[in-house]
Model the fold of this input.
Amino acid sequence: MGIKEKLVLPVAKRWISGADLHAAMEDAKDANSRGMGVVVNFLGEEITDQVAADAQVDEYLRLQQALCDGGVRGFASVKLTQLGMGSDDGAMGRRLDKVLEGAERLAQLLWIDMESSLSTEKTVSTYLDAHSSHPGLGVAIQAYARRSETDMKLILDQGGMVRLVKGAYREGPDFAFPTRAEISKSYERLMASLFERGEGFAIATHDGALIERAKALAESSHAKFRFEFLKGVRDELKTDLVKSGYAVSEYLPYGSQWWAYSKRRIAEHPSNVWLLLRSVV
Ligand SMILES: Cc1cc2nc3c(=O)[nH]c(=O)nc-3n(C[C@H](O)[C@H](O)[C@H](O)COP(=O)(O)OP(=O)(O)OC[C@H]3O[C@@H](n4cnc5c(N)ncnc54)[C@H](O)[C@@H]3O)c2cc1C
Done:
């Protein structure tokens, strides 16, 4: 581990369950005991080595089995570049099939995280293709992406499941709305169509105004949905929503490849830079 990683690790622990599956299961059981479901992600992205990509499948199968054996209320979420997307798409498809079969054998859902704009097109088309024979598959859609309205329509036309997020990657204005106001407006538009036409979707934001908007939309909708939060962010709000009777899940990443994920968490909120500084001085 380099010096940079060593300095960030104490702060990163806030968002990461730990290095191994055991740590993730401990957090998952704890979240369940607090009335929340879980979405568990084995950290990894942009894997080009085929042996390493095969090993990701093995870990996801272990994770699904552990969720089942532990009686945990939750499921896995995977990144397609960790299954080799971009280096061998055929092999990635076969790996995704294996993880999907693992989920179906245990009657679990499976979700696909959305990554940077370099992989959006392939992620959406892979999702639509796989979902046609695996209805328990969902995908994240990013409100900052200009194309998301079109993608969402295609997904909802097919009866797909969406996790709506703002978007976590650094993108240019051609791909993404550049201002917070435009991203929030886009989130509101996409959320309205989810409450109109979606089922089993997730409102995955920590933004209080958007959460209030979702609660208002839920009053006049029969759609089944849940709020989803990241581990380590807005814990009091999670508890309040559970107490008010909303379905809530916590996203729990684990594994040794925590650096890229943690950089995104630090970048998205200035208070995290202070946390980081306080931990090293
Ligand atoms: C369950 C879940 C799954 C996700 N999956 C994906 C995915 O697949 N692809 C993707 O691109 N993005 C994903 N994201 C991340 C998402 O895109 C945003 O980057 C992240 O949620 C921050 O945006 P926000 O909607 O919370 O709004 P923001 O406006 O960023 O935050 C609203 C408020 O929440 C709090 N907050 C937010 N983030 C932090 C933080 N890191 N530390 C401390 N406080 C914070 C602050 O109080 C802030 O004012 C996911 C998010 C969640 C909750």
